[in-house]
Amino acid sequence: MPDQVRWRDVTSWSRSDTDRSCPRTWEIKVGFLTVVVTRHIDLGPNEWMIRFSPPILSAHVSVHREVEDSKTEALVIAGKVLSKALQAVLKITEAQDEAGY
Known about the structure:
Elements: E1 8-9, E2 25-30, E3 33-38, E4 48-53, E5 61-63, H1 67-99
Antiparallel strand pairs: 1-2, 2-3, 3-4, 4-5
């Protein structure tokens, strides 16, 4: 992947975090879309939370996989959501054309 389109470690640590050897939050940005895969304190040790921005993609999904599998899953989910959004826009456009807008 080009340098500007790659997963980045964006882990933030609190003062009480003694073991900082294992990143726990990864982010990738492309244009307006940001995908984040992170560990969450309320999830199990092999579960990852997936978040999307902008809010049209706000879907919090926990998965039971290693981080690389979670990153792949996050991108698949983003693709599905964006595909559905595009289909909805195309339907609206067709309806406007038929109505003579």
